Recover the amino acids of this structure.
């Protein structure tokens, strides 16, 4: 009991410390390091949002890029059109919120139809939807508006970009944590464990799956929306980059999917590595990422947290049976 | 009209060749190789390079590169996927892990080809003379590659139906455990199916390189998803389904290309999505 209490206090202390460091980071970090930090935060939030749906229910979605792109595109287009006077210029957080809600509506509608498709088919389906969205946007740009991409009329300084991403990341964290710890999260875990059993004890699986798919997409849309602040120009290839679909899944796998610390550890580690590789080997970094992906899948079946648990188990066993 | 009938059929013949390989391999191993299109792209590159540097007939270079590609497929299965099979605890976990590993493979192949050959599109000029069918102009290479594709599909079908190895392959598709019980070496069949599917993809790549002039490192995923749409349409594990589905998608592709070229892939994805939701077993599946 006491040990548990100490553990909880240590966790709380560490989180508060991390939060303070994150809040004051712009005062002691150079712009370049700040940009790395915000990329890490972005991947962290994306992975946590992905894990909230796919990690808990075991329905693997590869459609994050679609939702990220939709959030980013909505925000970019809204900014552009309001600058030209078609729409009233709303404060940025409100636009991002709208982008998230749009995603929630779309994802719930998609989820309602698609969430009876299980396992690998669901992964293919979501990937197809994301690629189709990208295609439709591309067609719309070329044929209807006659442009390629969008130039953002309003530019933000690095501090604003950083704080908007930090605040959104925190919001995503708080939202998913509250939901995960509630009855809602319990139902999701049960669906992930065994959907049949969940149905038998009276969990409305369709409703919960759809809602959590929607909530996860909404969080991804928030991130897409606030991440547009860092661009001066955005097109479908940037916004709907398939990496936004894969990396959250890989980061979760790298960390270990059964605990929330897994995705966090995986996201921080892999995004730092990705950022380093992108700078060090700009032409080969995708090949290296692909190679790493294969190695992670082959040699780390339980992820980083699996290794941690293994060591813990070893130590405690030694303590019990010397 | 004639142009749609023949143009669609040419595409259909090649698409079904791509889909047959992927279907066979997925049916046997339950590993969805999304890097299938990447092997097609490799095949197209090898053919083009042999042709433009040594003037080698694409159909002859196929005979030379075929065994190499076949062994490459077997090696990839042995080095990567055997290990993933052994660490996966359930069929679902295996499918998910191998799917991600295949995406990794896709990135590796795509970017290695780009690093070696650059991102500029390449093309060859083999048999570009024109031929007139009912007044419509076609290049001979298109007709030739379509006929070759159909011929290879038929040969493969005959092999699957009449040889012992073909029987073993079909047995593993239908009843993996039962096949093992009656003495089929499932491990060997898995390697074989991987090698065969990669080989078929490379052959299809040769055909594609004869038809299209913009072979670049990024053409792969497009063909993978066309093949996936065909498999979903025709039914998993159904050879005839893949053939028929290939022609259906071929015609849809060609028609969309005529009406609105920018929407081609969106329509293919739409088909994939609609069929996955409404009829996951496909038109010809059991």
């Amino acid at each position: 009991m006491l040990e548990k209490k100490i553990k909880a206090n240590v966790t709380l202390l560490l989180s508060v410390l991390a939060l303070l460091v994150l809040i004051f980071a712009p005062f002691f970090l150079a712009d370049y390091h700040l940009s790395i930090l915000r990329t890490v935060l972005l991947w962290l939030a994306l992975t946590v949002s992905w894990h909230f749906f796919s990690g808990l229910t075991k329905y693997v979605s590869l459609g994050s890029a679609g939702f990220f792109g939709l959030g980013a595109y909505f925000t970019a287009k809204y900014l552009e059109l309001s600058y030209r006077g078609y729409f009233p210029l709303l404060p940025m957080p409100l636009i991002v919120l709208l982008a998230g809600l749009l995603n929630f509506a779309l994802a719930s509608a998609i989820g309602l139809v698609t969430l009876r498709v299980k396992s690998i088919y669901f992964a293919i389906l979501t990937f197809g939807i994301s690629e189709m969205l990208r295609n439709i946007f591309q067609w719309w740009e070329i044929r209807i508006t006659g442009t390629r991409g969008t130039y953002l009329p309003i530019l933000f300084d690095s501090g604003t970009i950083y704080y908007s991403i930090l605040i959104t990341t925190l919001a995503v964290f708080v939202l998913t944590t509250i939901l995960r710890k509630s009855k809602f999260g319990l139902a999701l875990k049960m669906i992930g464990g065994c959907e049949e059993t969940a149905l038998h004890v009276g969990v409305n699986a369709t409703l919960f799956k759809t809602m959590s798919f929607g909530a996860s997409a909404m969080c991804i849309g928030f991130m897409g929306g606030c991440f547009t602040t860092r661009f001066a120009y955005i097109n479908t290839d940037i916004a709907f980059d398939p990496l936004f679909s894969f990396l959250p899944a890989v980061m979760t796998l790298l960390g270990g999917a059964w605990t929330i610390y897994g995705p966090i550890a995986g996201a921080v580690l892999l995004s730092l590595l990705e950022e380093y590789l992108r700078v060090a080997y700009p032409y080969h970094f995708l090949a290296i990422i692909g190679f790493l992906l294969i190695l992670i899948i082959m040699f780390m079946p339980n992820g980083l947290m699996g290794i941690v648990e293994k060591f813990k188990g070893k130590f405690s066993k030694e303590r019990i049976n010397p | 009209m004639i142009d749609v009938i023949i143009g669609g059929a040419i595409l259909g013949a090649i698409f079904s060749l791509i889909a047959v390989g992927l279907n066979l391999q997925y049916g046997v191993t339950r590993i969805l190789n999304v890097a299938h299109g990447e092997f097609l792209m490799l095949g197209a590159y090898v053919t083009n390079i042999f042709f433009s540097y040594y003037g080698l007939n694409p159909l002859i270079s196929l005979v030379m590169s075929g065994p190499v590609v076949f062994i490459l497929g077997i090696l990839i299965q042995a080095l990567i996927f055997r290990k993933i099979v052994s660490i996966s605890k359930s069929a679902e976990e295996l499918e998910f892990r191998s799917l991600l590993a295949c995406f990794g493979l896709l990135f590796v192949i795509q970017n290695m080809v780009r690093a070696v050959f650059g991102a500029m599109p390449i093309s060859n000029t083999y048999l570009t003379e024109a031929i007139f069918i009912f007044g419509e102009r076609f290049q001979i290479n298109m007709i030739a590659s379509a006929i070759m594709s159909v011929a290879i599909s038929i040969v493969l079908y005959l092999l699957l139906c009449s040889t012992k190895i073909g029987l073993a392959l079909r047995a593993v598709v239908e009843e993996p455990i039962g096949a093992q019980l009656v003495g089929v070496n499932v491990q060997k069949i898995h390697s074989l199916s991987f090698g065969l599917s990669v080989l078929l993809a490379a052959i299809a790549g040769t055909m594609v390189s004869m038809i299209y002039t913009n072979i670049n490192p990024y053409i792969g995923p497009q063909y993978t998803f066309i093949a996936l749409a065909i498999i979903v349409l025709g039914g998993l594990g159904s050879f005839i389904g893949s053939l028929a589905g290939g022609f259906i998608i071929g015609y849809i592709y060609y028609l969309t290309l005529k009406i609105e070229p920018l929407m081609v892939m969106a329509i293919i994805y739409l088909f994939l999505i609609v069929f996955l939701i409404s009829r996951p077993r496909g038109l010809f599946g059991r």
In short: Strands of chain A lie at 150-151, 233-234. Residues 317-322 of chain A have pLDDT under 50 and may be disordered.
